Amino acid sequence: xxxxxxxxxxxxxxxxxxxxxxxxxxxxxxxxxxxxxxxxxxxxxxxxxxxxxxxxxxxxxxxxxxxxxxxxxxxxxxxxxxxxxxxxxxxxxxxxxxxxxxxxxxxxxxxxxxxxxxxxxxxxxxxxxxxxxxxxxxxxxxxxxxxxxxxxxxxxxxxxxxxxxxxxxxxxxxxxxxxxxxxxxxxxxxxxxxxxxxxxxxxxxxxxxxxxxxxxxxxxxxxxxxxxxxxxxxxxxxxxxxxxxxxxxxxxxxxxxxxxxxxxxxxxxxxxxxxxxxxxxxxxxxxxxxxxxxxxxxxxxxxxxxxxxxxxxxxxxxxxxxxxxxxxxxxxxxxxxxxxxxxxxxxxxxxxxxxxxxxxxxxxxxxxxxxxxxxxxxxxxxxxxxxxxxxxxxxxxxxxxxxxxxxxxxxxxxxxxxxxxxxxxxxxxxxxxxxxxxxxxxxxxxx
Length: 447
Fold this sequence. Notes:
Elements: E1 6-8, E2 16-18, E3 20-25, E4 28-34, E5 51-55, E6 57-59, E7 62-63, H1 80-91, H2 96-112, E8 115-122, H3 131-141, E9 144-151, H4 170-184, E10 193-199, H5 207-220, E11 223-228, H6 232-242, H7 246-252, E12 260-264, H8 270-278, E13 282-285, H9 287-292, H10 300-306, E14 309-312, E15 315-316, H11 325-340, H12 347-361, E16 378-382, H13 396-402, E17 410-413, E18 416-420, E19 423-424, H14 429-446
Parallel strand pairs: 1-5, 6-8, 7-15, 8-9, 9-10, 10-11, 11-12, 12-13, 13-14
Antiparallel strand pairs: 1-2, 3-4, 5-16, 16-17, 17-18, 18-19
Helix pairs in contact: 2-3, 2-14, 4-5, 8-10, 11-12, 12-13
C-alpha cells in the first residue's frame, strides 16, 4: 500500500505517517514508513492515496447467530433478563444451516466495518449444531477467529434463568470443550483459529462448571470468557444465590487473571476494578448493547487506569442490533463523554480500544498494530467521501470516529485481500442476505 493519506500505526510510539506506505511479505508486515524508505518493487502495489490505513479492528465479544433475531417484537424494549427470556425459545430452534448462514452474515458485516479478528460467544447448541460449523465459516471467509465454546447448564428448575430445554449436561460440555481444543486450537504466532472456553454467565451455569472449565483451559493454555457485571439484576441474583457480588464470585472461582476477559463489566465496584487491574483481567466493552438494554455505562476510564485490559465488542446482533465495529468505536467515545465529560475518551483512545486494546484482551501480541513483524492485518478507510468532507482535511484519523461510521474500502487479513474498493471479495452478498432473511423468517414462524 503506497502513499496513504495517513498511516496510523498504533505501534508503541503511536506513529502517524502522512503519505505513508506499508510493505507486506506473505502474511507479515515487513516495513512501515514513507514510500521512499520502503522497498521500491513489489509483486502488487495498492494505491492508497485516498485512504487512511490502520490496523484491522479486533472485536472481543459477539453472538453471531443473533443476527437472525434483530428487532424482534416483544424484545425491543426489554431489559436483559426479560430480553433473554423472550429470545431463548427462539434461539433453541436454530439448526445447523441457520447457524452457518447467520455466522456468515455476521462475519461479512464485521469485515465490511473494518474488523479483521473477532471472538464469538455462542452458548446455545440445539441438536445438530456445533462450533465446528462456525469455525469452518470463519475460515472460508478469512476472518481471524477466537471461537468461544459457550455453554449453559443450570435451567429454571434449578434456579437458573434459561429454560431447561436449552441447557446441556456439564460432562458433555467439558468433553466437547476438550475435543474442540485438541482439534482446532492453534497457539502459534499469526494463528487464524483459537479456542476459548466460555460458560455463559453466573445465572446460567454452575460454580462447578466454572471451576472445571478454568482448570481445563489452563491445562491446555486457552483463554476464558464469560458475561459478568452486566446488569443490576445479575448483581441481585448473585447476592441472593451465592452471597457474592459478580466480581467477587468470579474471583472465588479462579476467573481473574491475564487469561480471562469478561463481557460488559458495567457495574464493578472501585475496589473490584483495582483488583482486576492488578490481576490484568480483561473486559469487553459493548457500549451499544449496554445502551440498547438500559444496562448502564461501564467505567472504562477507571478500568484502564487500574491496569485492566480493555477492548470493544459489538455484542449480539439482537441487542445492538448491528455488527459494525467502527460504529462501536464511535459509540464508546460518545458514551464515556455522556458520563464523564468531553475529555473522557478521545477518538484516538477509542480506536486504540479497538486495535491494541482488543489484541491485549485476546492475549495476542501479533495483531493490533502496523509494525514490522506484526501480522498483515490492516484496513483502509476512504476519506474523500461526502461524509468525511470538512473533517478529513483537518484530522483524517479522528474523522473516522467523529463522522458517520464508514465502511472499510480495503481489508487485508493475514496477507489476504478480502475487501477491495469496498467490495467483499468472493461473497455474493445479495444471496447471503436473501438466505439469511429466509432463515430468520422460518425461525420466527416456527417459534
